[in-house]
Amino acid sequence: MEPARSGCKISPVVDIVFSRWTTPILWALNAEGPLRFVELQRRLGSITPKVLTQRLRQLERDGLVRRTQHLEVPPRVEYEITDLGRSLAPAFHTLAEWVDRHLADVEAARKSYDDAGLPMP
């Protein structure tokens, strides 16, 4: 994958991994192991079936999630994180630590900005 034209080497990965539902999907599959579609949807809460299907297809295409269809009656399909997807766990862990240390600072900055009556960006 060639670097983004903006000069930011990580842009292509940020676009893939940190889209709206990708991180929670990967987080759930990494924590829980293989899950059926409905189980995954339940764990994510408000995601629609259409969006979950789209995100899972994209993650499968990117090699981060594996879809396994079991030939039984009724048919059973499971999704699991791949080794490539699991290799993102240290990055997620680092981000989770950052959130633990700095989310209150971000919220305080937002409140200060909002209290000053500045327009939303």
TrEMBL record:
One of its GO terms (molecular function) is DNA binding. Residues 8-107 form the HTH hxlR-type domain. The keyword Transcription regulation applies. Keywords: DNA-binding, Transcription, Transcription regulation. Pfam families: HxlR (PF01638). InterPro entries: ArsR-like_HTH, HTH_HxlR, WH-like_DNA-bd_sf, WH_DNA-bd_sf. This is Transcriptional regulator, HxlR family. Transmembrane segments: none annotated. The lineage of its organism: Bacteria, Bacillati, Actinomycetota, Actinomycetes, Pseudonocardiales. It comes from Pseudonocardia thermophila.
